[in-house]
């Protein structure tokens, strides 16, 4: 079983054991960071409506399958302290899991590198 299969199995197991939460509603939006264009997430519903952010680095430990990520909030109508809160991080973590499991129904997804032998440039 490869690492992606382990991650999906682990995440699916968590979803079945926890109460079902409403899936956050979001859209993809291109934003300019000052040096490049990146694909960001705009939350269009819920407690963080109108926040635009993007993930910088997403990692998970293959032994514990613990997911971690960094993010940048590009636009927000809320106090900056709210964007650093555990609740906000948990909320966008749910969005990330939704994206990883390809269940957001919002169009095309990144191609999975099943047959690419080039090493990732992420450290």
Plain-language structure description:
- It is a single chain.
- The chain has helices at about 5-15, 80-85, 85-100, and strands spanning about 25-30, 35-45, 50-60, 65-75.
- With about 120 residues, the protein is α+β, with helices and mostly antiparallel strands.
- It has one domain.
- It has a four-stranded antiparallel beta sheet, with no helix packed on it.
Order of strands in the sheet with the most strands?
1-2-3-4
Structurally, how many domains make up the residues? 1
Order of helices and strands: HEEEEHH
- Shape descriptor reads globular
The percent range for helix content is 25-40%
Give the tally of β-strands: 4
Rg computed from alpha carbons, rounded to a whole number of angstroms? 15 Å
Averaged pLDDT = 76
Termini separation (Å)?
A: 23 Å
Largest sheet: 4 strands, antiparallel
Structural class: alpha+beta
Strand percentage = 25-35%
User: In oligomeric terms, what are we looking at?
Assistant: single chain
How many helices?
3
Runs in which pLDDT lies below 50 for 5 or more consecutive residues are 15-20, 104-112
What's the short version?
The chain is of the alpha+beta class and 123 residues long. The chain has three helices and four strands; from the N terminus they run H-E-E-E-E-H-H.
């Amino acid at each position: 079983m490869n690492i992606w299969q382990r991650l999906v199995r682990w995440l699916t197991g968590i979803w079945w054991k926890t109460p079902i939460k409403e899936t956050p509603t979001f859209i993809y939006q291109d934003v300019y960071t000052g040096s490049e264009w990146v694909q960001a997430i705009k939350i269009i519903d819920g407690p963080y409506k109108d926040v635009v952010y993007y993930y910088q680095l997403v990692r998970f430990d293959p032994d514990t399958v613990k997911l971690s990520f960094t993010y940048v909030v590009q636009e927000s109508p809320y106090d900056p302290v709210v964007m650093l809160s555990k609740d906000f991080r948990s909320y966008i973590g749910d969005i990330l899991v939704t994206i990883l499991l390809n269940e957001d129904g919002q169009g095309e997804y990144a191609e999975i590198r099943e047959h690419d032998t080039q090493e990732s440039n992420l450290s």
